[in-house]
């Protein structure tokens, strides 16, 4: 399995947004959408602000593949669904810490969207 380099992790973690382009069933990429990304240890995670209604998230969940751009990093990725409570608790904290300056109106929906947590793995 491929892993992120320390430089990639740092660059993406410092960026406010990540451009997410999940792969559709026909093999093409959806248009990129800006989303928030957080780091936990050696892993990167995203969630859908709109929960399971998010179009990019539904596509990513179906294909488990896509492409991201953030902080100067441009990579094909695999999406891995995250369901364990311990990891999601840490991701909640990461969202509150990194994005708290934007206020509860934005952060609370991200924390509430635990069921949409995806780990990004470079390909």
Under CATH, the topology can be stated as Pnp Oxidase, Chain A
Structural class: alpha+beta
The number of distinct β-strands equals: 7
CATH superfamily: Electron Transport, Fmn-binding Protein, Chain A
N→C terminal distance:
8 Å
Shape: globular
Give an overview of the whole structure.
This protein is α+β, with helices and mostly antiparallel strands. The chain has a single domain (6-122), classed as Roll (Pnp Oxidase, Chain A). 34% of the residues lie in helices and 29% in strands. It has helices at 6-14, 55-63, 85-99, 104-112, and strands at residues 18-22, 33-35, 37-40, 43-46, 65-70, 73-81, 118-122. It has a seven-stranded antiparallel β-sheet. It is globular, with a radius of gyration of 13 Å. It starts with 5 loop residues before the first helix and ends with a strand.
Offer a concise description of the structure.
This protein is of the alpha+beta class and 123 residues long. 34% of the residues lie in helices and 29% in strands.
């Amino acid at each position: 399995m491929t892993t992120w380099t320390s430089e990639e992790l740092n660059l993406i973690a410092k960026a406010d947004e990540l451009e997410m382009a999940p792969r559709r069933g026909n093999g093409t990429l959806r248009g990129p959408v800006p989303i928030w990304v957080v780091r936990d240890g050696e892993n990167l995670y995203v969630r859908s602000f709109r929960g399971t209604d998010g179009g990019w998230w539904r596509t990513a969940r179906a294909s488990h593949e896509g492409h991201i751009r953030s902080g100067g990093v441009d990579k094909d990725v695999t999406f891995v669904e995250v369901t364990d409570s311990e990891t999601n608790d840490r991701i909640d904290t990461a969202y509150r810490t990194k994005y708290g300056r934007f206020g509860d109106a934005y952060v609370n929906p991200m924390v509430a969207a635990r069921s949409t947590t995806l780990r990004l793995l470079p390909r």
